[in-house]
Amino acid sequence: MSDERPDPDALLAQLEAEHARAQRGKLKIFFGASPGVGKTYAMLSAARLLVAQGVDLIVGIVETHGRAETVALTQGLEILPRREIEYRGHTLKEFDLDAALVRKPALILMDELAHSNAPGSRHPKRWQDIEELLAAGIDVYTTVNVQHLDSLNDVIGGITGARIWETVPDKVFDSADEVVLVDLPPDELLQRLKEGKVYIPQQAERAMANFFRKGNLLALREISLRRTADRVDDDVLAYRRTQSVTAVWPTQESLLVCIGPGPGGEKLIRNAARVAVQGEVPWHAIYVETPKLQRLPDAERAHVLKMLKLAQDAGAHTAVLSGPDAAQTAIAYAQQHNLGKVMVGRDKRPFWDLGFAYHLGRQAPDLDVIQVARSDVEGRRRSLAQSAPKSAVVVRLPAYAIAFAVVVAVTIVATPLLNLLDLANIVMLFLLAVFFTAVKLGRGPALLSAFLSVAAFDFFFVPPRLSFAVSDVQYLVTFAVMLIVAVITGQLTAGLRFQVTVAESRERRTQALYEMARELSAALTVEQITEITERFVAQGFNARATLMLLDAHEHLVSIGSATAEDAPDIGIAQWAFDHNELAGLSTDTLPAAPILYVPLKAPMRTRGVLALRPLDLPWLPAPEQQRLLDTSATLIAIAIERVHYITVAQDALVHMESERLRNSLLSALSHDLRTPLTVLAGLAESLTLVGPSLPKAQAEIAQAIREEALRTNALVNNLLDMARLETGSVKLRREWQPLEEVIGVALQARANVLAHHAVRVDLPADLPLLEFDAVLMERVFCNLLENAAKYTPAGSRIEISARRDGDRVEIVVADNGPGLPVGKEEALFEKFARGHEESAVSGVGLGLAIVRAIVEVHRGSVRAENRPEGGTRFVILLPVGEPPTVPEEV
Amino acid sequence: MESSVSVVVIEDEPQIRRFLRTALEAEGCAVAEAATAERGLIEAGTRKPDLVILDLGLPDRDGVEVVRDVRTWSAVPILILSARADETDKVAALDAGADDYLTKPFGIAELQARVRALLRRQARSLPGEPIVCFGDVEVDLSLRRVRRAGVEVHLTPIEYRLLAQLITNAGRVLTHQQLLREVWGPGHAEDSHYLRVYMTGLRRKLEANPTLPRYLLTESGVGYRLLLGGS
């Protein structure tokens, strides 16, 4: 069924890739066969056209090499100033990546893709700078010559005799959005060279004699034409993917590269990378460490790891496996990962050694095995590195001494037994010694033991005794058996011991990881996590760890005990954090830094950076260790995230608790204050009802008591409301309703204070419904009306009107009283503000503050102003929102 | 009707009970007091009062529960006293079957007016005369006809149902939920804006000054009430 339907994961990945691509800048490469064909010229010409169209374009870096035509083309383009780097007394002028990212043009010109940056730059290579520019969404034009492509480096080196160390991974070339081949026939190129258009004349002579021979140029031209043709166009690829899903990953075609310890690994990897890219298949690179290979010197093993790193950079999955038999282990891996093709290196070897490829083919006939010749250019180079001293012998000397002693002991013990035992049984004693030595001490001592045993047995026991002569030929069989036993047992035990070592170290790693996971899961504070991380990193990686986490302002800060001189660099850490990638030591970004920065990626977000300072340099982590590091970083990140959410939950709990306390306090207060006021007002009023009616004076006193009680109650209401509104503990019950209704209620509620005022309400019939809390909005109008009644003389007019103004409704409460003191319009809304300080009008000035608070929780605004014709007006603006409709009745 | 009306007051604050008694006796009621819900339910059960005045903030039981309890065996009018500013408590009590409410502090005159209205309602609880008047409006329930100052007013079916509902429960506070359920049916409990729009329409047709209604009154955040023979 998978033949018919696209795999959802693959489609999702494709969607994500498309999204990423949309965000990413586009890369256009001007590709040429050799210097001088006019790549930079072509790039600049294209750029000038775009500038004419108004594209925001700058020159990041262009090497004119003093060529007049090229210089002329840069005229009038915006050129980014270069950054000056001091290096060994020289001032190097390099591309300024940060300035470019800050400037953020639509398109930037970056000449010479293969350039290596001066030490101290952020990335060692220019193509990595370009990656970052693309990631930032900036389009890039660049140039490169065919000889700089990683996979063609060897081939072209072989043709021209000149090796180039500035190379670019093929993936950069292949993932470019567009490649333009700048082609010039060799004759014309040579002509240009003669005319001095490529190099200044004295250089030209030398160049023509070496590199620019016509044969070379023809070959280079052919290779670059072919390479361009090989590069399948992105559109075609995308078309093929969406049209026929079966062709997405034909896994049987997938490739496994087995890297051996010998020379020529680079060539093998480049070849594999090229095949994999052309075939559009994933590929794996593995190294199988057998007992024999484990005894290789450290430099050799480091070289293998470097090869793996190279493969990883070129896009391979990498792994270091261990097993007694390299071929068997490799086959198991290939089967597990469904890899149908195996690529191995082929080199000179003695005739009896059938070679790795032979064993592969014999044990797994269904695998395609491809053999690649290893070039020996590198072999020569590397032989220097190989001369590391073999320290193994020194270490193992005691083992040989023990083997010797055992044989001597057996001889001494056996001599008196000679008369009691047959020679055949005496041999058994020696065999036991050989076996014991093999098991306990390994293959070398076992061999020594075997030879010594044979010698001792021959000399002391086989007649004629005390001579090496042998009278009976059958003892030769005994000697042979002893030797064979020694060799086989030694081999077996050595293999076993290696397996044990490997298993133990794996076990140790798993154990350490398990311990850390357990401790981290129990950690409740960041300090505990820091302590666990530091301890674990010291054990597992022999490095000092510093955790860098976000502070309240989203800045990275070091946590824990970093001293000043080995404190991690905030800049690199920030880069790793922002890009969610490793940075620093032995990575692509600032590899010269002494510290490795690992982003701590948790499920919700990146939580910080783990800074690792290895204690013994150089430090090159094996893939396993890399994986261990990844896993531990994830564990740490999850622990940090968990602690973060614990804190958040605790804060929320405290907040809720204090909210609850405040609410119950407010309602208790409201009850305890209102009850006595109710009693006071009620009792005062009831005085007039009981017994004989009161004398006039006393009835007035009772009335006064009642009014004061009611006023105090109003004050208490205002204070409590303000407290509720300010603490945000008011629950809005917003409902859609006509403004008319709430204004009516307010007028009714304040009918007594408005008794001596003329109130006019003017609301248009088509005013939309508004969404508000009726009780709170009633307070707004009550307070405004009360205010108007209070501050205007009896007989004044109060007008309430409303109108729709776009997406808001403007409500105006106006009077024709004395107006507001000029300049105090805003101050009115402050708490305890009074319009007229010396006024005898009662109140504490909370009314308008409450009005404003209520209007603002309804996302509206309120202002006070003097009317031009005299008097005050309060203007409330409320959002209209989307009123629901009420179905028409039929 | 001296002493023929009996009222049970359930209120935990003795001073409030004292002036309630004064006010009610001035209206000619016989008053029985209870300080707890438990005692109050016994009083209400044994005395068969004409009115129960109930404080929502009782120490031993939630007032809403007391209302529900009383409603299981009696239709006696219940007037709620509430010290709480929160409207949801009142709405809950009204939905449970209480008839009206007063928020503390309240004036004695207002209390007396409410008590009178409830007792009057109680007195003519059975469907009596089909013609109801308020202001210059005359509603003939049997003919489904509404006249204002002698001129027939055309009401839509929903408007009429709403008005009829208010007339049947005149003097009581009807919550939004109760009205929506009765007029629109149980499916419209959330559509309180329907009710508000129709109420506005009804006021425009029946009130002299729709913004300052005298009969079709709004209880903010709670519901509506029709005041017959409005003050």
Enumerate the spans of chain B where pLDDT stays under 50 for 5 or more consecutive residues.
none
Class from secondary-structure proportions of chain B? alpha/beta
Instruction: Tell me the Rg of chain A in angstroms.
Output: 44 Å
Number of H/I helices of chain A: 28
Q: Roughly what percent helix of chain B?
A: 40-55%
As a percent range, the share of helical residues of chain A equals 40-55%
Overall number of strands of chain B = 12
Give the biggest beta sheet of chain B.
5 strands, parallel
Largest interface: A-B, 45 and 41 residues
N-C termini distance of chain A: 57 Å
Q: Which term fits the overall shape of chain B?
A: globular
Overview of the molecule:
- The complex is a heterodimer of chains A (890) and B (231).
- Helices cover 51% and strands 16% of the residues of chain A.
- Chain A is of the alpha/beta class and 890 residues long.
- In chain A, the strands form six sheets. Chain A has a six-stranded parallel β-sheet with strand order 3-2-6-7-1-8, with helices on both faces. A five-stranded parallel β-sheet of chain A has the order 11-10-9-12-13, with helices on both faces. In chain A, strands 15-14-18-17-16 form a five-stranded antiparallel β-sheet, with helices on both faces.
- In chain A, β6, α5 and β7 form a beta-alpha-beta unit.
- The radius of gyration of chain A is 44 Å and the shape is elongated.
- The relative contact order of chain A is 0.04.
- About 3% of the residues of chain A have low confidence.
- Chain B is of the alpha/beta class and 231 residues long.
- Helix content of chain B is 41%, strand content 22%.
- Chain B contains eight helices and twelve strands.
- Chain B has a five-stranded parallel β-sheet with strand order 2-1-3-4-5, sandwiched between helices. A four-stranded antiparallel β-sheet of chain B has the order 6-7-8-9, with no helix packed on it.
- In chain B, α3 packs parallel to α4, α6 crosses α7 and α6 packs across α8.
- The longest helix of chain B is centred in the middle third of the chain and has 16 residues.
- Chain B starts with a strand and ends in a 5-residue tail after the last strand.
- At the A-B interface, α24, α25, β19, α26 and α27 of A face α1 and α8 of B.
